């Protein structure tokens, strides 16, 4: 009986298989026959070698240029260690193991650098290695090593590292003063961790000013992205003409908008030389206050060829050289000054202890004075002490007019930490809403001048504020240890 069942099952399987095969064959006969595709490739390039000889030569030269430059560019990994705060795991809290105590943690950031000496000195941006505990570099051939921070200069955003034990090849500096707008450049670096990335572009502009920087910048459309910071901007001779520093724009996929900025090589080399010689960068100091373009426009100053002096710091080299308010500086040494940016760049490059001739126009008459440059004064480093209990500083009631709504008091003794040693004036304690000063001043500002009149007390402030007329008032203030001028505009 079992044998009969088995035979019947095998017959059933055979019939099903035959039906499936027949259906498959029937489907093939129903499908249209597919003709073989004809494919005739191009016989060769549309342009002959003779027609693109120059382009092919340029292509080969760019390839050799990149091959010569890349071995001198390094990738930088900077590590900062810290104690992560204690946390509580809610799920495990009821089981007695939910509390996670404070524990070591670290963050890492990426950057780039360029080798500038056979001893292993590397130039990069100061912000790449600021406040870190360890710096490691990697060469294009894969070699890695720890790097020592030789020196940093926050004002120019330049830092110097040194690596030993590796066979390094330095790149030479070019003269960034000779760089021209339209000149072809390449940027090499480590954007987003992609080592040895090379981008090409041109110099789009020179003399770009950036907030909180003492030097100007080259603008380039060579792609610069996070991680490119500190890498070199190279001319067609393979010389360093800039240190890539920042990109202007948004974040993420929007960060690359063709607006990259690089520190000129001459500035970077000056900082390098100072750090190698002394371990620090002594910035020259002239003591001239000039408006940036926005402030100049708000002050209603006419367009001039030169830098308009709105104030001279008492006791400074500028005052001793008889430079005065309303002078127009047209040259420092042999370098012309056309605007605020030119003056800032030239003044930042002055060496302490040197003398420099300054050409200016006063009352329509050209003249030349000599200034003896000193080192940039440091902020008062005394430890701030809180005011004695029960001692109250006299406070001024708000005045009317353009300075309405500003509450001030005498500078508390405990605030000296964040002010220059010669700071004077009154401290802003509050600014009322819907007043002309609301968007200009903030709590903690020190008002040192009102329309060039020095302020030393609350009484002097009230007297000067009451005398203000018109719809604009120029204030000399000190904020976060830095002096500046600002305009309160009531229009």
Short description:
The chain is an alpha+beta fold and 491 residues long.
pLDDT averaged residue by residue: 82
Strand-residue proportion: 25-35%
Q: What structural class do helix, strand and pairing data support?
A: alpha+beta
Compute the separation of the termini in Å: 111 Å
Sheet of most strands:
7 strands, antiparallel
Envelope shape? elongated
Total domains, how many? 3
Please count the beta strands (DSSP E, at least 2 residues each): 31
Query: Please, how many helices?
Result: 9
> What radius of gyration results from the CA coordinates?
34 Å
**What strand order characterises the main sheet?**
7-6-1-4-5-9-8
Poorly predicted runs: 250-255, 379-394
The CATH class of the largest domain: Mainly Beta
CATH architecture of the largest domain: Beta Barrel
Summarize the helices and strands and which ones pair or pack.
Layout: H1 2-30, H2 53-69, E1 73-84, E2 87-88, H3 90-93, E3 99-100, E4 103-115, E5 121-125, H4 126-129, E6 134-138, E7 144-146, E8 148-153, E9 158-162, E10 184-189, E11 197-209, E12 216-220, E13 232-234, E14 240-247, E15 260-264, H5 265-278, E16 284-285, E17 288-289, H6 293-299, E18 307-308, E19 311-312, H7 317-320, E20 328-332, E21 335-336, H8 340-348, E22 355-362, E23 365-372, E24 374-375, E25 395-396, E26 406-410, E27 426-431, E28 446-450, E29 453-454, H9 458-466, E30 472-479, E31 482-489
Antiparallel strand pairs: 1-4, 1-6, 2-3, 4-5, 5-9, 6-7, 8-9, 10-11, 10-13, 11-12, 12-15, 13-14, 14-15, 16-24, 17-19, 18-20, 20-21, 20-22, 22-23, 25-26, 26-27, 27-28, 28-29, 28-30, 30-31
